[in-house]
TrEMBL record:
SUPFAM superfamilies: PUA domain-like. This is EVE domain-containing protein. InterPro entries: 5hmC_binding, EVE_domain, PUA-like_sf, THYN1-like_EVE. Pfam families: EVE (PF01878). It comes from Dyella caseinilytica. Residues 1-143 form the EVE domain.
Length: 145
DNA sequence: GCCAACGTTGGC
DNA sequence: GCCAACGTTGGC
């Protein structure tokens, strides 16, 4: 799961312990949260759009998917007038802090491992903020720490 | 700040 | 259904 550290970093999650992952407004990313995640699943917390893009820490899925409250809030920048409470368009999960990595495993470094070339994160043009990680890639990346 | 690679919108 | 225009993401 990607987040811009200027907005919400791994340190913010550490401090708050748990966070509703709101604001995802891409259908594919939503589907991964709604259909692909189960409570207890591991999450790589990725820092994007910053000086050192890469995996900064580990987190865990802490809830089933539910309607993102911000879509109903006219004052929120994530407000969606086309969504209704009866039939919410946007879903989210809660995420809880596990730990920071000892160091950021950078995007640049991940690109240098041929074994990881097929990761969704590394595929060309991928801008999704939520995407799946294979178990084998998860294990391999943790050995790089 | 630039720009490639998207996704969305809306006219037709 | 097509596609041009537009907006966003995110690395660099």
């Amino acid at each position: 799961m990607k987040s811009e550290p200027d907005t919400f970093s791994i340190d913010d999650l550490k401090r708050k312990k748990r966070e509703a992952w709101d604001g995802v407004r891409n259908y594919q990313a939503r589907n991964f949260m709604r259909d692909g995640m189960r409570v207890g699943d591991g999450v790589f917390f990725y820092h994007s759009n910053c000086a050192e893009p890469g995996i900064a820490g580990l987190a865990e899925v802490a809830s089933d998917a539910y309607a993102d409250p911000s879509q109903f809030d006219p004052k929120s920048k994530y407000f969606d007038s086309g969504s209704s409470r009866d039939n919410p368009r946007w879903m989210l999960v809660d995420v809880k802090f596990t730990r920071k990595l000892k160091r950021v495993i950078t995007l640049d470094e991940l690109k240098n491992h041929p074994k990881l070339a097929d990761m969704a994160l590394l595929r060309k043009g991928n801008r999704l903020s939520v995407m799946p990680v294979d178990g084998k890639d998860w294990q391999y990346i943790l050995t790089l720490e």
